């Protein structure tokens, strides 16, 4: 920020020099006119003043370049800094924040809103300083030339200030509304582009076009309201300057004829008055820019001031690494007013395997996400190695966990880069070995580009099963102490599932493994299996114990066995 202050200070000094040259030119015109009126008695000929005017104009143009580049470069620096802070803040925020926000709206804040702020701290600041200096200096020189004529020249200005003040609040509201409509339009485009295959599959192209046209129409209408207000303001500014000039011509011309004002003073006075016209017109543009910038900054501050619900512990526990002993004590969790988990308690020793099964909405995914603190956990509910999870630093906790979510996200990069995301600097052999354990290697080798195959937006070029296995390989490569698999094999067939489970059994070793699955076959080798229902543990035990119990787990197992026999038949 110290560098920014120096840039603005230097830019302000260049602006003072620029305006000094500009203000000197009307005075030189006054001397040139007086020299023409008295050629024999004037100290210098008109050509001398003409040369000075040319020199002042050249110097004015040169210094103007430096003033603009210095201030605009400072604005670019501020934009860069805010963008960095925005991105860093987004990475700190947790899932509860993103669950309520649309990607397109956040993208709009990074692009359009940041541009408006840059314009405000760049062109806006430049013109504010420029207008302030011009007004003060030009009015002072006009008063020196003719105080009475200055009063007549500025008569329209109070009217203009009153109108601008009344319109500024309306401009802010309209500008903010325009930014919000642009965010909705951006969100609509982002959603439709991502869902292009689905739109085509359901022949919803016309509906998507109509929806986009409606969002675009609302954005255009909100922009038109801003433009209408701006279109009214700028002529008001221009009319103010023109009215002042007309009054000066009428009153000042009479004074020149009467001999109360010299022709040179009249020419200089009109030159300074003309210099006020452009800053006056710019006031309307500056007002529009400032209101748009203020509205955009308010939207950006909403992100910058957002606080994550999952934050770092004030005094993290002094531990080097996590081993994987897990204990849950009466875990309760709610999404708002809706309670999802009710009193979940269990212990998982290091190296043990826990299986979780249950119907949709029973709280399976929520439970495993709490273990990685993707949601806020109350104190004294979850312990790892005997330490409250809220006392473990997030970096240490998440580095110890390999998490494979239900829908693995893939970046628009190569298969190798997506797998290597789990471990920085991974070698080709390590990537291939992780893919082999995930049952993906043979299929990748059949691709023309192999591991260099680009997967497209969100992995669109891969099948559902291939995307899931890529996500599994990413977690395996990480070599975590705790492996969490949230229904990672739902998109693969039974044969591939068996192959992957056999590979993973050799990989688990002393790692603590938690598997969420709707298929009993993925859980049968687990040391402990819990069946969730309505956020509570309905049944728990080993695979054999639960079958012997003859409850819902056993019924689900028989159902799946029967379905498999029918499919094989």
Topology:
Blueprint lengths: L1 H36 L8 H47 L2 H5 L3 H43 L1 H7 L3 H38 L1 H6 L3 H54 L4 H42 L21 E10 L2 E11 L4 E5 L6 H8 L10 E3 L2 E2 L5 H6 L1 E4 L10 H6 L7 H10 L3 H6 L17 H15 L3 E5 L7 H15 L3 E5 L11 E6 L2 E6 L1 H7 L2 H17 L1
Parallel strand pairs: 3-8, 3-9, 6-7, 7-8
Antiparallel strand pairs: 1-2, 1-4, 4-5, 9-10
Helix pairs in contact: 1-2, 1-4, 1-9, 2-4, 4-5, 4-6, 4-9, 5-8, 6-8, 6-9, 8-9, 13-15, 17-18
- The helix content is 55-70%
Biggest sheet, spatial arrangement of strands: 6-7-8-3-9-10
In terms of DSSP E residues, the strand content is: 5-15%
* Biggest sheet statistics: 6 strands, mixed
Q: Assign the CATH superfamily of the largest domain.
A: ABC transporter type 1, transmembrane domain
Count of discrete structural domains: 2
Supply the CATH architecture of the largest domain.
Answer: Up-down Bundle
Continuous helix count? 18
CATH C-level of the largest domain:
Mainly Alpha
Number of strands: 10
Account of the protein in words:
By secondary structure, this protein is an alpha/beta fold. It folds into two domains: 2-304, ABC transporter transmembrane region fold; 326-568, 3-Layer(aba) Sandwich (Rossmann fold), CATH 3.40.50.300. Helices cover 65% and strands 10% of the residues. Helix 1 runs parallel beside helix 4. The protein is elongated, with a radius of gyration of 36 Å. The model has no long low-confidence stretch (mean pLDDT 83).
């Amino acid at each position: 920020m110290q560098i920014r202050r120096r840039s603005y200070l230097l830019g302000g000094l260049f602006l003072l020099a620029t305006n000094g040259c500009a203000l000197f030119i009307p005075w030189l015109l006054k001397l040139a006119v007086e020299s023409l009126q008295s050629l024999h008695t004037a100290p210098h000929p008109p050509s001398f003043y003409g040369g000075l005017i040319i020199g002042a104009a050249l110097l004015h143009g040169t210094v103007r370049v430096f003033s603009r580049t210095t201030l605009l470069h400072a604005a670019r620096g501020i934009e860069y800094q805010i963008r960095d802070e925005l991105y860093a803040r987004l990475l700190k925020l947790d899932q509860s924040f993103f669950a309520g926000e649309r990607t397109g709206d956040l993208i709009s804040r990074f692009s359009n809103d940041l541009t408006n702020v840059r314009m405000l701290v760049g062109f806006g600041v430049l013109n504010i300083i420029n207008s302030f200096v011009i007004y003060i200096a030009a009015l002072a020189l006009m008063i020196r030339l003719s105080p009475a004529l200055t009063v007549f020249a500025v008569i329209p200005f109070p009217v203009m200030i009153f109108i601008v003040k009344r319109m500024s609040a309306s401009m802010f509201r309209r500008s903010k509304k325009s930014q919000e409509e642009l965010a909705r339009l951006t969100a609509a485009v982002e959603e439709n582009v991502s869902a292009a295959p689905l739109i085509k599959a359901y022949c919803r192209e016309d509906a998507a076009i109509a929806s986009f046209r409606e969002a675009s129409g609302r954005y255009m209408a909100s922009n038109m309201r801003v433009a209408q207000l701006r279109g009214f303001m700028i002529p008001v500014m221009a009319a103010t300057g023109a009215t002042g000039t007309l009054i000066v011509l009428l009153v000042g011309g009479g004074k020149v004829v009467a001999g109360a004002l010299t022709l040179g003073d009249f020419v200089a006075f009109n030159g300074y008055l003309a210099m006020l016209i452009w800053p006056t017109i710019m006031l309307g543009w500056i007002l529009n820019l400032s209101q748009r910038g203020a509205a955009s900054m308010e939207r950006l501050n909403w992100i910058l001031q957002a606080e994550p619900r999952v934050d770092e512990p004030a005094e993290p526990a002094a531990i080097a690494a996590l081993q994987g002993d897990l204990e849950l004590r009466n875990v309760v969790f709610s999404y708002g007013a809706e309670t999802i988990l009710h009193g979940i308690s269990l212990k998982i020793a290091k190296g043990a395997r826990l299986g979780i099964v249950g119907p949709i909405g029973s709280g399976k995914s929520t439970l495993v996400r709490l273990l990685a603190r993707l949601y806020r956990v109350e104190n004294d509910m979850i312990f790892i190695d005997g330490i409250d999870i809220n006392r473990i630093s997030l970096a240490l906790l998440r580095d110890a966990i390999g998490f494979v979510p239900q829908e693995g996200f893939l970046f628009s990069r190569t298969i190798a880069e997506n797998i290597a995301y789990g471990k920085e600097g991974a070698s080709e052999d390590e990537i291939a070995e992780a893919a082999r354990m995930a049952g993906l290697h043979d299929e990748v080798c059949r691709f023309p580009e192999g591991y260099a195959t680009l997967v497209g937006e969100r992995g669109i070029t891969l099948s559902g099963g291939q995307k899931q296995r890529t996500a599994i390989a990413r977690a395996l490569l990480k070599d975590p102490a705790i492996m969490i698999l949230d229904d990672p094999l739902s998109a693969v067939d039974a044969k591939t599932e068996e192959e992957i489970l056999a590979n993973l059994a050799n990989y688990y070793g002393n790692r603590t493994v938690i598997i969420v699955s709707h298929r009993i076959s993925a859980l049968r080798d687990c040391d402990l299996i819990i069946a969730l229902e309505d956020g509570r543990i309905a049944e728990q035990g080993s695979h054999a114990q639960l079958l012997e119990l003859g409850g819902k787990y056993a019924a689900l197992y028989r159902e799946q066995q029967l379905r498999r026999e029918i499919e094989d038949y």
